[in-house]
Amino acid sequence: MNKELFDYVAERADILVASEASTQVTKDAAQAWKDAVAADASDEAVDKATTALLDILEGRPTTIDGVIAFAQGPAKEMFGEEAAAQMLETSLQRKEQGAKYCNCDACTAASELLAKFGRIEL
Predict the structure, then answer these.
(1) I need a labelling partner for 90 at 20 to 30 A (CA). Which of 2, 30, 52, 96 fits?
(2) Mean pLDDT value of segment 14-20
């Protein structure tokens, strides 16, 4: 893996580890990638660690339809009617503009990684 691609993955792994929006599974997978490449930076080891991270990330970024459903339901109780309505409005606008995934930092980092490696289309 070239340095530019490595840096791209590393930056997003850092986001996934630190994000409050990341699930524990996602945080653990990103940390495992960081630990693996710190222990062995050979191309083979980095490629293996990256494949493992991508395998775990597949299906994890919330779709825009999932965000809309969340805003119409559980978000009302969690954040209040006003915040849920704003989330819904923003999400519907984003969907109209062609967005496919949630735009929180964790979903953005995960979807960017998956797209970079051809596993999804943005």
Answers:
(1) 30
(2) 97
